Amino acid sequence: MCVTLKKLAATSNNCGGNLAGLVAKLWVAKAEDVATIPAPAASPANQIVIASDITMQAGKVFQEWNFQKDTGKVYASSVGPEGSLSFENMVDFTFPRPTLDVLEQLFLNANTELIVIVKKRDGQVVIIGDLDNPAYFSEIKPDSGLKGSDPNNVPCKLKALAANGYKVYTGVIPVAA
């Protein structure tokens, strides 16, 4: 869907920062455990904003995964030929240690269709994946390092295809009470 072009000002905030990166956690659920992800608002100003709450299948919730500080980022990259662009929405993050719990979750869900929610340090919350085009791991790379000072961690990348980039989420994240 196209929208009317509008003037975009070069925004600056000389009174505050523009902190990059993600808070050191994300929320993940199997796509089959999600009942509905509401559509974005129909108004032209909010076509990328999901303001209603995600609903889950009975007894299912999003799980919180804590990762290493300063390793998380979310981004969208346009792909495809001219006139037919779509997007790959991605989340990169690193678990600081390859614990048994981390390895089990990653190895045994390597091909699982997922819905992922991340919170940027500026407070914006983003959804990667939807029920038609869920996210999946495109990289899981446990690395012991070579010498004692090398990282012994697990870098990961999740990716989902989308027609119009990632969506901003302002609803409640359904987690266990």
What does this structure look like?
The protein has 177 residues and is mostly beta strands. The protein has one domain (24-169). The chain contains 1 helix and 12 strands. The chain has a 6-stranded mixed β-sheet with strand order 3-12-9-8-1-5, with no helix packed on it. A hairpin with a 6-residue loop joins β6 and β7. The radius of gyration is 17 Å and the shape is globular. It starts with 21 loop residues before the first strand and ends in an 8-residue tail after the last strand. The mean pLDDT is 90.
Report mean pLDDT, rounded to a whole number.
90
Q: What is the C-alpha radius of gyration, as a whole number of Å?
A: 17 Å
Q: Order of strands across the widest beta sheet? A: 3-12-9-8-1-5
Write down the domain tally. 1
Structural class label: mainly beta
Terminal CA distance reads 38 Å
**Sheet with the most strands, sense and barrel status:** 6 strands, mixed
In which range does the helix fraction lie?
Answer: under 10%
Q: Count the DSSP helices.
A: 1
List keywords for this structure.
177 residues; four-stranded antiparallel β-sheet; 37% strand
Task: Record the SSE blueprint.
Elements: E1 22-30, E2 34-36, E3 49-50, E4 55-56, E5 63-66, E6 73-79, E7 86-95, H1 100-108, E8 114-120, E9 125-128, E10 136-140, E11 154-162, E12 167-169
Parallel strand pairs: 3-12
Antiparallel strand pairs: 1-5, 1-8, 2-4, 6-7, 7-11, 8-9, 9-12, 10-11
